[in-house]
């Protein structure tokens, strides 16, 4: 194994006292102060995240939209210019290779954002699927950084950031005040164009900014300075994980992997079996036949939310069991994929795959935590929804 890569913001994290940890082939900030403080800051004010480890693949050419319709499970040709869509790339058997966000950031141009650990695989798989399409793929991640501002004060912080301005020539006709959720626009920072998406992985309002590696430190510092009066703090991977869990968002390698199709994960909505060409014929895409068959078959397991009735949290790979007498461990009915105490809600929460017979809301189950059956109950996901203004 080679040495973990460092983002353009690595020295900033070290200077801020961050605890660094290997993640997806990168050395990333785990926390700066405390997990709880960073989590609460994002829920109550805002957090600043370095996401520069994420993959970014530029797809251009006359057939870019048709190619992505073929290569991914989503209906990408229906994404409006300056729009964004959550999607997945699947294998022929319908299993998930990665979950992605696709930005339609210019005419005939798309950005495919992949998870760090899967970025090389996604680029390779997309390359294998280009036959017959007039497209060009380019890995643009090495020259870029990705910074996210997440939280209820995020929009105010963006507007207060020195050097970050709107530019009608590159905004796609969108004013920042009118930018919708899961849409993007061009802005400028210190004169340099950058892409801003109203997207995120925390369950809060927020923005993700793609900027050149050369401008990354200046933008990071400008956002920190602008955000300080609003309660913004730098936040690490630990807070990002607890935030996404509360929001019920899947993490590749936990809820999604090559043993799972989107349907087991409760994400069948992203699979567009209804894709058709201009003449009305169905658009074949990689994994379509397997996914169509899977949609019609009863599931062997279902992803559910679990709310703890005690204080001990479930963790990934703990077994979900039938609730027995007292702390007695019953028959195994599933396995936890992600679990933690919820800082916002005040009780343990978890995502788990269980058999369909015990997946109904309100079903009382337990999790085997070191030989002791801890009581949990099946609840709807997400566990947390941000207040709507």
From TrEMBL:
- One annotated GO molecular function: aminomethyltransferase activity
Q: Where is the Aminomethyltransferase C-terminal domain?
A: 301-384
- Which cellular components does GO assign to this protein? cytosol; glycine cleavage complex
Question: Keyword annotations for this protein?
Answer: Aminotransferase, Methyltransferase, Transferase
Instruction: Establish whether keyword Transferase is in the entry.
Output: yes
Q: Catalytic activity, per the record?
A: N(6)-[(R)-S(8)-aminomethyldihydrolipoyl]-L-lysyl-[protein] + (6S)-5,6,7,8-tetrahydrofolate = N(6)-[(R)-dihydrolipoyl]-L-lysyl-[protein] + (6R)-5,10-methylene-5,6,7,8-tetrahydrofolate + NH4(+)
EC code(s) of this entry: 2.1.2.10
Domain GCVT N-terminal as annotated: residue spans: 9-275
Q: What is this protein called?
A: Aminomethyltransferase
Q: Which organism is it from?
A: Promicromonospora sukumoe
